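Course assignment 3, question 2. Fill in each field.
Student: A.L.
Task: Predict the tertiary structure for the chain below.
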Amino acid sequence: MPEELKPTDPAEPVSEPAPSAPEPPATLEPEHHKPWLARVLQRWGIETGPGADWALDWLQIIIIAIALALVTMNFIIVRMRVPTGSMEPTILPGSSFFVDKISFYFRKPQPGDIIVFWHNEGTDEAPRWVRYVKRLIAVGGQTVQIKDCHVYVNGVPMTDDAFNHPGHPNPERQCYYNSGKMGDQLLTVPPGHYFVLGDNSRNSLDGRFWDFPFVCEKDFIGEPFLKVWPPTQIGFMNGYFGSPR
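Answer field:
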C-alpha cells in the first residue's frame, strides 16, 4: 500500500536564506571648484592650492561688490549732502539724501517736483559746475511770473502745497519773493529747459538771480527720493511711495 503523504502545516514557518548585507557605496572625493580668478592664474601657468583658492574666492566677491556699487552710484542713484538752507524747511542744511537718476528715462519731472541738476557758478571760459537742488516750477513752453507772493504758471497761481503760496499750512512757505533780476516780469521757459526756485524764497540763489534763468534738461541729474540724514527725518520724500512733496 502506498505511503500517504502528509501535507505541510501552513502555520509552520518556512525558513528562507537571510539576505546579504548591502555593500557600502563607494566614497567619492568632494569636487573642488576653483574660483574664476584661480582659473585665470592657471592659464598663466600659476597653480593655486585650497588656501589660495579660498582667498581668491573672497577677493572675487569683493571685486564684484565694488563693481556693482560703482555702477549703482554712477548710473542709478547718487548720495547728495545739502550745505545751505535754500530749500528750508523741506530740506534742512546738512541733510543727506539719495537721488534717483534712472526714473527720468521713464517719467519726465513735473512742476512741483524737487530736482537735482548741474549749475555753472563760473563762466563760460572758466566753468565751475556745482550740484544744486531746487523745486521745479515750470517746464519748456510754459510761462512763469512771481507776484503777490504767488508763482503763476501759464497765468494760473500755483496753490498746491508743493509750491509756496499765501495759504500754505507752513508759515515759512507762504510767499515767493520777486527778487533779483527777474522781478515780476513774465518769462517763457524755452523748450528743453526748466525754471526752478528754492522753497526758502528769502534765501535761495535760483532762477530769479541768474543771467540765464533756466536749467537745461541736459544738466538734469535726478530727483531726491530718500532722506538718510538727519536720523529724525529718515524716510522717503518728494512724492515717492506717497511721501509729501
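Instructor remarks: Residues 50-75 form the longest helix (26 residues). The helical segments are 36-43, 50-75.
Grade: pending
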